[in-house]
Design a protein that fits this description.
The radius of gyration is 19 Å and the shape is globular. The two termini are 32 Å apart. It is 5% helix and 41% strand. The longest helix has 11 residues. The N terminus is likely disordered. The protein has two helices and 22 strands. It has 352 residues and is mainly beta.
Length: 352
């Protein structure tokens, strides 16, 4: 998501510099408009254009390179990613299918990268992707940023589900670049009340067949953030109780039947804060408010940024490995980080 106010990672700058930057933070970001076509002049005849992704390995903490464990999350490996193309970045959703790391940006570009090995498996230095390509969201169509503000991905049978804000909808694509379909059961009347830049920020399809949808901001009358569970038979309003001052930006179904929700907050002087919340299968299969257990808190000086995507790396039922990806909002003040974690789920499935 592109924030309403310019996000700055100012927690490492000197006080005077931070005060100067705070003046910039008071300026509104450029609005997204309907008349900004997505160019694809660099694409080859297949629609893809190749990019060269560079990966700089980073520790969890520059101040303490030996730091690894935060709550139930153990840091395995991470990288600062850069590329030689100006459309690289802005990634807000990710999935892993076989050896393909697939991400989507909030201006409607796919990135499909072939992994050198399983992420986090002690990959040497920058040896992360053997090749990477980008592709406009829908082959053969020039669309506006308003139409292409993709914010989340979820694996689905036969393809990928994509959540959009601004023009709020849930789309299904069999492969990146294919013409999107709009499954009618996922197009909820409640979308009409969502503001342009405050829509469905996280989606995850559960093994039960329920698609869980999380709205980033705006409390419901019950005092919780809006959330739904949706099946072919209809939608149930659930609500989600996020950690204080945090909002959901990604969700990931887990092999034990539970779900992991990534929650983010930001302030100019404290920087970004990430909290991981575990929702048990019992909670997901009920009809009540989605309220879980906080299992990890990640704050500066740890190497984090505007984390917006989760993907499954290794689906172990007790210690899955997950990837976390950040959205740099195409700003030189922010980074595209790919972080890999092991999550300890021992005993959590029994939580209410």
């Amino acid at each position: 998501m592109r924030p309403d106010w310019l996000m700055l990672t100012g927690f490492k700058v000197a006080t005077i510099a931070a005060l100067c930057l705070s003046l910039t933070a008071c300026l509104p970001s450029q609005p997204k408009t309907k008349d900004a076509p997505i160019p694809d002049e660099d694409a080859d005849e297949t629609g893809f254009y190749r990019i060269q992704v560079s990966a700089e390995e980073i520790p969890l903490s520059d101040d303490d390179p030996g730091a690894k464990r935060l709550g139930r999350a153990t840091y395995l490996q991470g990288w600062h990613l850069t590329a030689d193309h100006d459309r690289f970045g802005g990634f807000s959703g990710a999935v892993i299918k076989g050896d393909q790391f697939i991400a989507v940006s909030d201006q409607g570009d796919w990135m499909i990268a072939t992994m050198a090995n399983r992420l986090g498996a002690n990959l040497a230095g920058s040896n992360v992707f053997t090749e990477a390509r980008m592709l406009p969201f829908a082959e053969g169509r020039i669309q506006s940023k308003f139409e292409l503000d993709a914010e989340s991905l979820s694996p689905a049978r036969g393809g990928i589900l994509v959540g959009f804000e601004q023009e709020h909808r849930i789309a299904f694509v069999p492969t990146p670049g294919a013409a999107p379909q709009l499954p009618p059961q996922y197009q909820l009347p409640g979308f009409q009340s969502l503001s342009n830049n405050k829509g469905i920020e996280a989606i995850s399809l559960h093994d039960s067949g329920q698609l869980f949808l999380f709205v980033e901001t705006g409390n419901s009358p019950q005092g919780v953030l809006r959330a739904w569970s949706v099946t072919d038979d209809g939608a149930v309003f659930r609500g989600y109780r996020a950690p204080d001052n945090h909002s959901p930006t990604a969700a990931l179904a887990l092999p034990d039947g539970g779900m992991l929700v990534l929650n983010r907050s930001y302030s100019l002087f404290a920087g970004f804060s990430i909290k991981l919340v575990y929702l048990s299968e019992k909670t997901l299969l009920s009809t009540g408010v989605l309220e879980g257990v906080e299992i990890a808190s990640i704050t500066p000086p740890m190497n984090i940024d505007n984390m917006e995507a989760l993907a499954m790396v290794r689906p172990d039922p007790l210690r899955p490995h997950i990837a976390m990806l950040s959205d740099n909002n195409f700003s030189n003040l922010m980074r595209t980080l790919l972080l890999v974690w092991e999550i300890d789920l021992t005993g959590l499935a029994e939580q209410p």
